[in-house]
Prior knowledge:
Elements: E1 3-9, H1 13-24, E2 28-34, H2 38-47, E3 52-54, H3 57-61, E4 66-69, H4 73-83, E5 92-95, H5 101-113, E6 117-118, E7 120-123, E8 144-148, H6 155-167, E9 171-174, H7 177-202, H8 217-223, H9 230-239, H10 241-264, H11 267-291
Parallel strand pairs: 1-2, 1-4, 2-3, 4-5, 5-6, 8-9
Antiparallel strand pairs: 7-8
Helix pairs in contact: 4-5, 7-10
Amino acid sequence: xxxxxxxxxxxxxxxxxxxxxxxxxKLAVKVDGHVRRTVSIGECERMGVVDHATRDVGMAVKNADxxxxxxxxxxxxxxxxxxxxxxxxGAIVTDVGSVxxxxxxxxxxxxxxxxxxxxxxxxxxxxxxxxxxxxxxDLFQGAICLVTPTPRSNAEAVQKLEEFWRDLxxxxxxxxxxxxxxxxxxxxxxxxxxxxELANYVLSPAHPKEQALVCxxxxxxxxxxxxxSPEMWRDIALANRKNLSRVLGVFIEDMVExxxxxxxxxxxxxxxxxxxxxxxxxxxxxxxxxxx
Length: 292
């Protein structure tokens, strides 16, 4: 599908990558972006991620057929309220946030009352580097994109949005906002907390200075995502706190069991722990390889 104008609210890694991909695939006549800082205007336009960048969110959204919120979760409602007077009737609004329940609850009524259609999205793509300088046109190629309509969603808007993500190279999966938040609490949010705690604990100044010298590739790989945006992950943790707290509880229980096996010198249980992990991960990676 071809769009006349797409507005990107937030032009960092995800917003910038969207702009590059949209322009490379010629999915829109015009791509405008909203940025927070004046210095970002020139940077975005020089990199070619948008046709026009502005700090005026209303101007970015004006006449847009598709509006994509690419900001931290905590900013979405505030910015939506700002641009609503300029929202085109019938426009589709979506987001790329990692939590859906609270976003849908807050934004769907606002967008509907303004004559638009809100449908949540979550492309499972990103990286630990932030900012438009990290943007790449192929970021979404082959990525799963979760689309989270509700019983109140406009069916045509849902179909158009799913087609948009397919046109970007994504593999679309339609699920409910609540199921989305349950699944990503385990596969995305829990791993980030674990990586952050590993970085906090192992690299703490309380340890000898030689500690960092013995942190090799395994530690680097395991903690890579801890370099993500603290602001973004603060908002994600708070927005999905009920699910995240629950899965953290299960994770901690599993760690307590492993520690007990260590204390008891239970070689069989310890080996089973590592065997199960290897088998499950190998099966997961094999399934992914065969799907490509």
